[in-house]
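Entry type: protein chain
Record version: 2
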Amino acid sequence: MFEGSYVWTKTIDDGTSYQDSTNARTSRAVSSVDVPHRLIFSGVYELPLGRGRQIGGGMSKLLDTVIGGWQTNGVYNLQSGSALGISANNTAGIFTEAIRSNSNGKNPSLEGDAHGRLDRWFDTSVFSQPAAFTLGNVSPLVANLRNHYIHNLDMSVFKHFQIRESLKLQFRAEAFNSLNRVRFSGPNTSVTGGANFGKVTAQSNDPRQVQFGLKLIW
């Protein structure tokens, strides 16, 4: 059995923290939960191996106990990263609300593999600190400036051992982030971050984790 879904969305949010509370329209931007693309695929597959099956249908009960009746399942998730916002300091944010940077209007996104962009996740030259007592012109979140995307596959294999007519033992081996893919944390997004501005310095997911389990079913 296999199931899959693909979602394309675009979410717009007026924001809840305004840089200029007298002009809420300047805070219009994509939402912090905006995910333009998301693919989820899940499936369960029983191997055609063992007594009464396509392969090895006549094998002995002892051999079938060891290699027959195994199943595998998995959940695959491919998802866009969330949008980034570029902040500043010591400008004219009204009533200590959000303080945002200036942009020169150029496209800040950079192409290429994530591993090659850790020291410069985006074009930092696009953004700058506004002059004192002025408001930055950047929206709360920049739609084409995103965190690292999600690319994850969780998998497991399992088998039922019949102990009695009403009692079964299930063995499971599960691998989370089975491909051991890294997902990096967001970059430093403050124009006053100095040498760290635009740099990625951490990982946001866990390395591959494997666990084994036994479960009695009656």
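Comment: The CA atoms of residues 29 and 61 lie 64 Å apart.
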